[in-house]
Design a protein that fits this description.
This protein has twelve helices and 21 strands. By secondary structure, the chain is α/β, with parallel strands linked by helices. Strands 4, 14, 15, 16, 17, 18, 19, 20 and 21 form a nine-stranded mixed beta sheet that branches. The structure holds pyridoxal-5'-phosphate (PLP).
Length: about 425
Amino acid sequence: MHSFHYTNGSLHCENVSLAQLAKEHGTPLYVYSAETFRDRFTRLDSAFSGIDHEVAYAVKANSNLSVLRLLAELGSGFDIVSGGELYRVIKAGGDPSKCTFAGVGKTRAEIEYALQQGIYSINVESEEEAAFISQVAVEMDVIAPIAFRVNPNVDAKTHKYISTGKSENKFGIDFEFILEAYERASKLPNLNLKGLQMHIGSQLTSVDPFVEAVEKVGPLAARLKADYGIEFFSIGGGIGIIYEEALASGKESWWTEQPEDSRPITPGKYAAAILPGLEKLGLKILLEPGRFIAGNAGVLVTRCLYEKKGTTKTFKIVDSGMHHLIRPALYEGFHEIVPINEPSGAIESVDVVGPICESGDFFCQNREVSSFLPGDLIALMSAGAYGMVMATTYNSHPLPAEILVDGDDSKVVRKRQTLEDLIAPEEL
Ligand SMILES: *Cc1c(COP(=O)(O)O)cnc(C)c1O
């Protein structure tokens, strides 16, 4: 199943034509498939059905309220990294008692808010933070549930900007220091040592680093259960998705369980690889997928404005860019680019670039893509995660609208920003 497909010569999201949506709502436009969100959540959840577990969607991947509501309705927990994300989850109808709160720089206001709302666990990234949370909890006269985030020093073999589990990364407490951290925290007032957490990186395309991390950290979790009675072990997120050529090649979507060896990570493969190390712990296992759930669920639809032929290159200039989808500029992220009108077979080598006054403002460089012309609509595939959430108004371009498609229905889940919205918070 791929929720984005050509029907009658035109790209559709489920049963809705993207050309029609662009006509009604303009471009640039993010379009999401509810079916894909549900499919990814359910597949991962079922792969772990044999053990006590919870899928806590990493809100930062795509935090639109309607996306959060859809996942809350499936029973998802949420992994948040700010007070703002907790606010969104609550507004969307999510359950704070299923929220874990990560991040290296939590403020007093955020900690107080999380404790007031009764979240499941604050995932603590330094001993200083644990001492501070203890102090805040004493002042509020509550018990703060915490877990330390361990940095296992495992190479996730992903882009250096999205690797988080090596000792040179700012995240978590070094494996060597973690037992002392629990020992000292156990003597602090108003803390409940509830779990252990790790997250080694994002867009992992092999299960091996996950296995290595579970093998290294599993025994530590067992020890902490024995010593402090912790109840959960969160193994983080990071499951990679297929960005390349999923649509043009006509291949089935990435999660297809067969043939196994041509698919980097599927829920089945992931679970099979790590369950042996997890089952024996007798702990509740938390999963924190972000990209895995949201990545393939969205596309960015943009219109080609101009074509410019230089001496060495052909530039296709479109009405969206790094201000709406920064992954190519930020970490060399790849997005398949396809015309909304089913391609005839003609291919050309192009740079697809946006209007922003930065040379880093490109979606691809020297890439062979199906030909398209000024006036044509194209889609940046697999833009559902780390897309709109990182959009800015740099160069004073209003933010795009977002549409959620569900079967035959489509709904505006975020209005396009207007010029008035753009300057509304400012004063003269
Ligand atoms: C970002 C993040 C995730 C989600 O990562 P994905 O690669 O999107 O799955 C999970 N846990 C924590 C602590 C994170 O910071």
